[in-house]
Specification:
The protein is mainly α. The protein is built from 17 helices and two strands. The chain has a two-stranded antiparallel sheet.
Length: about 400
């Protein structure tokens, strides 16, 4: 017999129960202590501090000297260089003296000097500072710069000149599928870019005032004098560049259109006649009587505009005749209905007085202002009389009015 056979089975069961109880107690103590220490653990965690964002105030920017900004522009850090460049641009665009110097520079004859100042203006301005250029000095400088682009013909470009083998009567719209704007000089395109943005955001009055049409637009290649109007119209129709955008805004403006007409790029408008014709509204009148007062309808030659007016007058006269015929038919139908009403049909309540007191009579005359006798009929008789006066006319004016078009309400 082995040594464990001497152990009683009851003692073995008690040992297993004790071990299980000890394990459960240990797990419970561990979980309980962990839950009790959790708040203290969360409160004692030290997280690394977040870096504070530091901003440059306006006072800090104003305190920076030019020497400091020059050093910051040469810094190895890109963010520092960008911030310094923004500070310099903001100072320059808000300084009137610097702006006048740049505007004066774009009007110089020297091409390199113009380009240097134009590029500086392009870098300084954006949609928030564009209004600084919408002044008399700014618009005048851009127009002068465009004029210098025409006059300049040196080897570096800048001018608009014709080649030796090019036809002087050719225009910019000879080929509708080829847009020559993108081959223009960069100085000219920069000026047009500024003017297009200014006219889009503001108006074209200053542009017209300083002679943009006369000094630059009219000097472009629009072809021979007899074809300038047609070529200009075709250019606005087939082109979608900055020149076309500016020209459309000029055309839509009263002052701009006047300048275009003076330059021979737009046909002048014909003055409106206060009274082109006298329509004869008689039912028996014909369409020829409506055009009797028009100029050119006798033995003299009729112009295309006169022919258009005659056709419009004829159509209006026919429509007026049809409307008059319909109105007379309706009046006749109402007269026929009114004739079926008894003589005392006008007697009734207040609603009948309002309906029958109109100054226009169905028989053609006007009612006298004599007072009516007091009502001596019952309400049922008044209702029947009102039913007798109700009728409906169905006719759209395309045919003569007939008796079948009048529908009377039958009494109950």
């Amino acid at each position: 017999m082995t040594w464990y056979s001497s152990i009683h089975p009851q003692h073995a069961v008690q040992g297993v129960a004790s071990l299980g109880l000890i394990a459960i107690t240990t797990v419970g103590i561990y979980v309980g202590v962990r839950e009790l220490l959790r708040p203290y653990h969360a409160a004692n965690i030290n997280y690394p501090p977040m870096p504070k964002t530091q901003y440059i105030t306006q006072d800090t920017e104003d305190s920076l000297s030019l020497a400091t900004l020059e050093k910051l522009l040469k810094h190895y850090n890109f963010s520092i260089r960008e911030t310094a460049a923004k500070i310099v641009c903001d100072r320059a665009i808000n300084d009137d003296d610097v702006l006048l110097v740049l505007l004066y520079g774009i009007t110089r004859r020297d091409y390199d000097e113009r380009m240097k100042n134009l590029r500086a203006l392009a870098m300084l301005t954006d949609q928030h500072t564009l209004h600084r250029l919408n002044t008399a000095e700014g618009i005048s400088a851009f127009v002068k710069s465009l004029e210098q682009c025409i006059l300049t013909a040196d080897e570096d470009g800048g001018g608009v000149v014709l080649d030796d083998d090019e036809d002087p009567n050719s225009s910019m719209i000879d080929d509708i599928s080829f847009d020559e704007y993108y081959l223009r000089d960069i100085a000219e395109k920069l000026c047009l870019m500024f003017l297009a943005q200014l006219t889009e955001k503001f108006d074209v009055d200053l542009l017209v005032r300083f002679g943009f049409v006369r000094r630059w637009l009219a000097k472009q290649r629009w072809g021979p004098p007899e074809a300038r109007i047609d070529n200009f119209a075709r250019y606005l129709k087939y082109r979608d560049n900055r020149i076309a955008d500016i020209c459309r805004r000029l055309r839509d403006s009263p002052s701009g259109r006047k300048a275009l007409e003076k330059a021979g790029l737009v046909a002048p408008r014909q003055p409106l006649q206060p009274k082109l014709l006298q329509l004869n509204l008689r039912a028996s009148g014909s369409s020829s009587t409506a055009t009797a007062g028009l100029p050119g309808t006798s033995n003299e030659q009729v112009s295309p505009r006169g022919m258009a007016a005659v056709e419009a007058a004829t159509e209006n006269s026919a429509q007026a005749d049809a409307m008059i015929q319909t109105a007379r038919g309706v009046l006749g139908a109402l007269s026929a209905v009114a004739s079926a009403v008894p003589e005392n049909a006008g007697e009734g309540d207040a609603g009948d007085d309002v309906a029958t007191s109109s100054p226009i009579s169905t028989t053609g005359g006007s009612r006298s202002g004599q007072p009516r006798p007091p009502s001596q009929s019952s309400r049922e008789e008044q209702r029947i009389r009102r039913q007798h006066r109700e009728a409906m006319v169905l006719n759209d004016g395309s045919r003569p009015l007939r008796r079948d078009d009048i529908i009377e309400r039958e009494s109950d």
